[in-house]
Amino acid sequence: MSFTIAIDGPAAAGKGTLAQALSAHFGFAYLDTGLLYRAVGAGVLAGGEPVAVAQALDPSDLNADTLRTQAVAEAASRVAVIPDVRAALIAFQRSFARRDGGAVLDGRDIGTVICPDANVKLFVTASAEIRADRRFAELTAKGVQADLAAILDEVRARDDRDQNRAEAPLIAAADATLIDTTSMTAAEALAQAITIVTAKRA
Ligand code: DC
């Protein structure tokens, strides 16, 4: 039987951490849909045409490690405004969502466009400042030199582009539960999400 958990929210709000922990807890498959857009962005940085890259994408062939750079994130946010790019990625996401045994998808438009009938919809957010702080801490922990003010500018620019595009903008579905992680630990956010999912499955 299928059971779909849709998780949306802005960059660096903790969606990925929460989605992975939920999928491990319930034994569901996990899809980070941002990787699809990142792969298209990377293809464009390599000289490809966005729609052609999206149509030729083999989603089973994504290497998360090479797609985690700031330049690729920026390119992903730019290609994500193109309606034909989004259209090319819909079928894969919908069939993933319906797979037997349950699925967790995270992104920007999962609860609104990809899976409007998802069993559980969560909208995970946090202030731009705290998201920039977390990204900064993550980078410095890896030994990468980072500039907090530049990260905050980038977070705000990406929020602005993701929220204000015409096609499938980042917005909470009317029936989504809001989880604001600004003053929460990852464990607290997970506990809240598990309670919500468990109630829906009962
Ligand atoms: O979640 P992420 O940072 O990996 O996403 C990268 C970009 O991809 C994000 O800025 C907007 C776009 N994206 C999208 O438009 N829709 C999704 N479902 C997931 C990501």
What can you see in these coordinates?
- It is built from 9 helices and 5 strands.
- The model has no long low-confidence stretch (mean pLDDT 94).
- With 202 residues, the chain is of the alpha/beta class.
- The chain has helices at 15-26, 34-45, 50-56, 70-79, 83-97, 110-114, 128-141, 148-164, 186-201, and strands at residues 4-8, 29-32, 103-107, 120-125, 177-180.
- It binds 2'-deoxycytidine-5'-monophosphate.
- Principal-axis shape: globular
Helical content class: 40-55%
Calculate the mean pLDDT score and round it.
Answer: 94
User: Which strand order spans the largest sheet, edge to edge or round the barrel?
Assistant: 2-3-1-4-5
**H/E element string?**
EHEHHHHEHEHHEH
- Low-confidence runs of at least 5 consecutive residues: none
Bound heterogens, unique? 2'-deoxycytidine-5'-monophosphate
Structural class computed from helices and strand pairing: alpha/beta
Most strands sheet: 5 strands, parallel
Q: State the separation between the terminal residues, measured CA to CA.
A: 14 Å
Count the E strands. Answer: 5
Structure annotation, total helices: 9
How much is the radius of gyration in Å? 16 Å
Strand content: 5-15%
